[in-house]
Each structure stands twice: as C-alpha cells, then as structure tokens.
Amino acid sequence: MDYVVGVDIGGTFTDCVALTPDRRIVHAKTPSTHATDPGEGVMAGVSELAEALGRPLSDFLGACGRVSHGTTIGTNLVVERKGARTGLLTTAGHEDALSMMRGGGRTAGLPFEQVFSVQRTAKPEPLVPRERIGAVFERVDRDGRVVAPLDEARARRTLGELLSTHRIEALAICLLWSFRNPAHERRLAEIARELAPDLFVSLSCEVSPQLGEYERAVATVINAYIGPASARYLRTTASRLSERGLAGPFLVMQANGGVIPVGAAERAPLITLDSGPAGGLAGVAKLAGAAGHGNVIATDMGGTSFDVGLVVAGRPVIAETCVLGQYTYRAPHLDVRSIACGGGSIAWVDPHTASLRVGPHSAGSDPGPAAYGRGGREPTVTDADVVLGLVRADGFLDGRMPLDAAAARAAVARLGERLGLDVERTAAGILQVNNAAAANLIRQRTIQQGLDPRDFAIYAFGGAGPVHAFGFADELGVKTVVIPLGNGASTLSAYGVAASDMQLFFDQACEFHFPLQLEPLQAALGALEARALAAARDQGLEPSRLTTERTGFFRYRGQYFQSLALPLPDVRAANFNAALRGRFNAEYARLYGEGALVMRQDVELFSLRVRLVEPLETGLARPWAAGGPPRPAGGRAVFWPGELAWRDTAVWKGTDLRPGDGLAGPAIVELAHTTVAVAPGQRLTADAHGNLVLDLPQ
Questions:
Q1: What is the rounded average pLDDT for all residues in the chain?
Q2: Distance from the Cα of residue 483 to its chain's centroid
Q3: What residues contact 609, with CB distance under 8 A and at least 6 apart?
Q4: What is the pLDDT of residues 341-384, one digit of tens each?
Q5: Which residues are 311's β-sheet partners?
Q6: From residue 139, how far is each of 136, 151, 168, 182, 222 by CA, in Å?
Q7: Is 52 helix (H, G, I), strand (E, B) or coil?
C-alpha cells in the first residue's frame, strides 16, 4: 500500500491523516483558512504530513496512492447564500413548487425551541427567485409516455432570456415525471449547452430520479447552485496537488460514506454536502469492525457541534432525506444528526426561568472561548473544562496553543454570580447541562428508533469528545466507551475520509406490488446494474474489482414519507417473495410496533438501488510504547462534576500506554490533540488496535 491521505476541513482546524505503507497513522492539524482560500489550509496540512514523515513534499505526494478530501464548501455556499446565479426550467404550471414547499417548510430543520415560535419561523430565502424560473411546454405521464411533445422553439426563447437578461451561471432542469422518461430533460440540456457551452447544467433525472416533485426540484437546484464554485475549488485543489507531485488520484468524500473521483464530484457536488461528518462515521465503522463492535454510537464533539451517527450490525445507518437551510431533498447519506453542543458553546442564564443554559450559540474560533485569550468574555464549555482541571491550560494542543486559565475562571465566575453559585459548581453545572443535551440527542437516535443505547458501545472522538464522554455515557447507562486511535480521535473524520471505500450509488424509480413479478424485477435490476457498470468504466474503475449490492425501498401502498430499505436477495432464490415480505414485517414492527402492521395491506416496491464498492484494505499496526509498566506523569486536583468535590487525580501520558495497560479513575490521560477524562469508579484500558477503552460501572 502506498501512502493514503485523508483531508477534512473543519470550522476551526483542517485535519490531515496519512496511512503509511507499514500501516501506521500520521496526523497533522492546521488552522482552517475559510476567510481566504480553503485550499491553503489543505496544502499546509499535507505539507505538515510530509514534514512529519521526513520527506520533501514532492516525494511524499509522488508516493501517495491517493488523496481523499472531505469538504464543507457546498454546505457553506447554501448556508451563506453565496452560490451561483441559478435559473430553473420546469414544466409549465409548476413554476411555484419551490416557493410553495410542503406544509413543514417553515420549520424544516429548525431547532426544537424555534418550531413553535411564530415570530422566528418563516420560509427560507429562495435559492432561485421567481423571475429566474422558466416554464417549459411539455408533458410526460406517470408511465413515461409523452403526452405533449417538447416545444423546443419556446424553450430556446426562455433559455435565451435567462442567459441574456438574468445572466444565470447555472441551470437546473426539473420536469414532471422525468425520472420515468428523461428524454425532454436531456434535450433541454443539449439546447442549453448549444447556447452557453460553459453553463453548469443540473438534471433532476440524474441528481434525484425519485418521486416527489418538491424534493427532486430542491436537489436539482442545490446541485446547480453550488456547482460552479464547488467545481472550481475541486479543480484548483487537484491542480495544486498535481503540480506539487501527486501521482495518484484525487478523490472526494461523499455524504453516503464513500469516495468518488473528482470528476464525478464536479458534476454532482450535491453528494459531497456534509461529507466531513460522514467521514467520522465511516471511520468508526472501519475501526469498530476490527474491534468486534457490531453496534456503535459514533459521537463527534468539536468546537461548535455534537454529531451522532449509528452503526447497526456492522453497517452505518443511511438516511434518504436531508434538510439544508430549511430545504428538504432526497439523497442517500450517512445519517448523522447534529446539535449545537461543543467546546465553544456559550453558557448563559435564561431570563424567564433564571436557569442555566448551554448553547446553541457558540464563541466559534474567533474570538473563541475566554480561555483562548482573543477577547472573548462569554463562558463556554471549554472554559468550564479549564476551571475544573479536566484540561491543562498549558497543555492544549500539545502546548502549541496555551490557554488563559485566569480569563476562563473570570468568565465562569461572572456567570456564577448571576446563579448564586461558586465558580466550581457553576463550571460543573455547565458540563452537566451540556452532557445532558448530548445524551438526549443519543436517546433520540436510538430509543426513538426502537434501539436500546445500552446495547451499544460509544465511540467518542473530535477534540472535545474524549473529555466529556465519561459524563454523557454514564447518563445513558452505556457500559463501554472507545476513544478510537487514542490521539487520532481528534482527527478521526480525516481518517475516515482516507480509509473509505470507493462507492457509487445508482437509483431508479419503479412500481412493483407483492407478490413481486420476478421476471420484470430481474429485468429492471439488470438494466440498472448495466447502467451502473457503464458509469464506473467511464470513471476509470475496473468492474472486476467492484462488488455489487442491491437494495429495494418498500412501503405500504398510499404511504409517502415512510419507507424501509431492505437488501434484495437473488431473485431466483426459493421463497423470494415470502422471505422479503417477512423481512418487511419484522423491520416495520421493530420501528413502529406490532400494532402498526397491516397484514392485508398492499406493500409496494417503489425504488431500486445498486451500490458498487471498490474496497480499500486499511489494516493498522500502531507502534506502542516500549519498556516496563507505565507510571503517571504527574497529578493535579480535579473538581469532578459527579461528586462536586476536588479529588487528587493522576495524570498519564497516552503515548506511554501499551496494549493491556489499564488505569483506574479518577485519572486524566493527556494526548497531543485531546484529553481523556476517567471519572471516579471508571477504568480505562489500552487495546491491541490503538484504542483507549473506558469501562463504566453498571
């Protein structure tokens, strides 16, 4: 294996990881450069990797088998409304689908506390103003038959006006029933490229070929809206790496948990949205399999957010519906949910109840927590960590970024005066409230989906995750917490980006009812697989190295928002229909209860998916410390929130631990990029995979 590199751009830091030919992991962490050029932070991180390996940058890149990149460019463009001037062509009479939305459009994606606020709920700012939406005269029916042919002359005039009067930079085309028959959409794309060869064109039949006019239109528009800027950034970054010696491919992380060639990502940037959090869950799935954990709750706590994803029976959970900027669309993605609950979350007093609250507002990286010494005065979770002694002020980021303990204490003390509490109890309260919010999100992701969190191991990563996992895991009754890769926990998303398999997803709407007609189903699957393999060849992939997975989407007839994704066995298998219907009933009952089953109701198969995977082998061998049993590097007093008391606490260096070494709490394990807190009564052990495992009492 050549060097395999993963890069993940975060809000504060750009994380880079290199998997070496001898299966070690090398980390780099550099400040993100969103304000100037995100690519500068990428190149700085890659250069730091080369320096850590003792190789010139050109030699290092020349020895890279591949470089994979997780990016937030597309997400930022939508959130900040800085995308391209986009036009939309849609079937005449349906020009208002985007603005009408669905009934939940005013509250889609909003925090719970805003849902019932009349003053704070409104439809989002339109991505395409009404004057840039053009009507196309055509009609295809639900079976794909052409009812009214495309009026090309009028379409040309409409396109010409969008180009000349409105000067659009990107074009979305979304026609009724185009996923049944895409001929009209493809012809409009040809006309658009005749009139403007450099125009970015997004087709709904390619981006989201599924039933649901509104969601399909949103997906197509967002793909066009972020397309030009995303493509420029990816091309520029690929060019920079190539000019400095990269010989292997430049790949881009998808939200569904796999990587794709940069050319495919340039054409469909929608699938790269939120690829950073997906990298973390993908990395956890890889490591959990090696450690023998089938059911895992992946928790990523950084400076501004707390992300939670699930691995069930060894597979990351995939969701089909996404919400971005209150716009809902359909695209397969690893189901990672987030709340504003991180190290930079600001603690405050609710003026109505006089109670302590934490978040959702964050101090960010500038000015950041008061402890950063950059002028911030509001108390944050990180400030509370410093006050309690969980984080050593002069050891933050391995001493490269010393914290101002006095400023942190002063900020927390000011809050305590309003609450009538001393500074230590105020700091403990901040952590307890923050941990309760984290635990509540985990309950929503597990209990509300018919899963018991006590049957899972928690993998805690991100810069702040290992510091606080002792608290929110205890509140949930979870027995095992894993700090994956030890110091690598703070760059785990970058590891996941590096270690992800190549994956291609292809969907096709269909209509089958139980008992499924096997010959037509086999024909539909065969056609979809042929299309998938042809696309893989076009992207330079070797079909013989790909594995194929087939999935069907089922629901009761008449349902729309509820559906179940079930793996499709070989159509030629005995009892195919009976086995599939039984699997549908079992999963439906698990999610909604036995009483929700309607045994005589018609069940339909409404969509097919083919997933092609080119696996990447990423076995790891961590060089462990040599010598005799480790000893604490020192000690300090820590105010433990669970006891509300100061305790003398041993401090250990994480790099001194070897497989099988264990220590009992209270203890602090310091690593270069994070800190692991072991509360009284808990025990931490180093395993053979490079992980630190925290065992909690029953």
A1: 90
A2: 19
A3: 332, 505, 506, 507, 508, 550, 551, 552, 553, 565
A4: 888 899 999 998 999 999 888 887 778 899 998 888 999 999 99
A5: 296, 316
A6: 9, 10, 25, 11, 24
A7: helix
Please name which of 518, 441, 505 lies closest in space to residue 472, comparing C-alpha atoms: 441
DSSP E strand boundaries for 155-222: 170-174, 200-203
- Note the Cα 72 to chain centre separation in Å: 10
Contacts by 163-167, CB closer than 8 A, 24 or more apart? 163/195, 163/196, 163/199, 166/85, 166/87, 166/131, 166/132, 167/85
Provide the token pair at 262.
Answer: 């940069």
* DSSP 3-state of 192: helix
**How would you class 96 by CB atoms within 10 Å of its CB: exposed for 0-12, middle for 13-18, buried for 19 or more?**
exposed
Query: Do the beta carbons of residue 208 and residue 329 sit within 8 Å?
Result: yes
Question: Which is nearest to 224 in space by CA: 267, 254, 286, 166?
Answer: 267
Radius of gyration of the chain (CA): 26
* 26-35, 504-513, 521-530, 654-663: the lowest-pLDDT one: 26-35
Say how many C-beta atoms besides its own lie within 10 A of residue 81's C-beta. Answer: 12
**DSSP strand E in 208-326: where?**
250-253, 259-261, 296-301, 306-312, 315-316, 318-324
H or E element in which residue 492 lies:
helix 492-499
Percent over 90 (pLDDT), the chain: 61
The torsion angles phi and psi of 426, rounded to 5 degrees, stand at -65, -45
- DSSP strands (E only) in 155-211: 170-174, 200-203
* CA proximity to 440, closest of 318, 539, 299: 299
CA pair distance 9, 31, nearest whole angstrom: 9
Spatial CB neighbours of 227, under 8 Å, sequence gap ≥ 6: 84, 170, 200, 202, 266, 269
The pair of three-digit structure tokens given for residue 225, joined into one six-digit string: 């809206």
CA dist list (Å): 20 to 4, 25, 52: 7, 6, 12
Residue (of 60, 43, 51, 47) closest to 4 by Cα position: 60
Six-digit token string for 368: 């950041």
Spatial neighbors of 130 by CB under 8 A, at least 6 apart, are 95, 96, 99
**SS percent in the chain: helix, strand, coil, step 5:** 40, 25, 35
DSSP E strands in 20-72: the ranges are 25-31, 64-70
- Residue 70's DSSP bridge partners are 8
Size (the chain), residues: 698
Cβ–Cβ < 8 Å for 176, 91: yes
Place of tokens 């962490």: 29
Tell me the pLDDT tens digit for each residue of 255-308: 988 999 998 999 999 999 888 788 889 999 989 988 889 999 999 998 878 899
Q: Are 478 and 457 in contact (CB under 8 A)?
A: yes
